[in-house]
Amino acid sequence: MFFDTKGIRLAYDDQGTGLPLVFLHAFPLNRSMWTPQTTALSRQFRTIAMDLRGHGESDAPLWNFSLEQYADDVLALLDHLAIPQAVLVGLSMGGYISLAFSRKYGSRLKGLVLADTRAQADSPEGRTGRFNLAQTAYGKGADAVADIMLSKLLGATSLQQKPELVDSIRHTIRNTPVSGIVVDLMAMADRPDSVAHLRTLACPTLVVVGQEDHTTPLADAHVMATGIPGARLAVIPAAGHLSNLEQPEVFNDLVRTFVEELRAAGD
Ligand code: MLT
After folding, report:
1. Quick check: CB of 145 below 6 Å from ligand 1?
2. Cα 254 to ligand 1 centroid, rounded to whole Å
3. What is the domain-level CATH number for residue 42?
4. Is 26 touching ligand 1 by the criterion CB < 6 Å?
5. Number of structural domains, the chain?
6. What is the reported pTM?
7. What are the residues whose beta carbons fall under 8 Å from the beta carbon of 159, sequence distance 6 or more?
8. What is the largest CA-CA distance in the chain?
9. Which domain holds residue 250?
10. Tens of pLDDT, residues 120-179
């Protein structure tokens, strides 16, 4: 399905009924990374997965340089679907966007799942790395980005044992517009530090991290889990940065339990 916000067309899937869960994907992927979650969890909940601008079937405008714009797009989707409150499930860049959303639109949050992400801003080296990768994308295309990103996205276990997953991630990255890749990198490089913001988060929060995640490792998950009042931390063995794809059943069980408890607390 598609909806329009300020002249930009964005794609999303909407399945199931009940408490809405909105899934926000990682860089440089699209909503298809959430298929194992939306397939399983839409039996109990309403699952909505969107392609962020510049990804998948959404438009790829060139003038977006801030993660707040993506948060505004999430709000526009909630308004379009007349959803007053939702649980945001954000992985990596999706987690950065969830934090941006919580800063601007906290009253629209029923709960948060922050997976394989971090609250800190980029270090100066991290920013330089993003500009270098943007230059590579611009000069050599998305194939070169796929070659660089695969070992950052997948853990050692998946790289060794899951060749189909490796191929499917490579395929997704190769098909991501270069403009989407470059714009994401600029927006991520520019994001503010959210560590002080964590203690102001009022909604129930689950922090998830793959044990083999070297991109946003366990130490980053600890910063969020200790900073957010009442947050819970779950570590997924034999998973890297894309923990939802590397160990989908474990990831689904964690989200299911968290949302069932949320729902029970609200009854
Ligand atoms: C992601 O998976 O969204 C990115 O790796 C995040 C990042 O580069 O910080």
Report:
1. no
2. 22
3. 3.40.50.1820
4. yes
5. 1
6. 0.97
7. 150, 151, 166, 240
8. 54
9. 2-266
10. 999 999 999 999 999 999 999 999 999 999 999 999 999 999 999 999 999 999 999 999
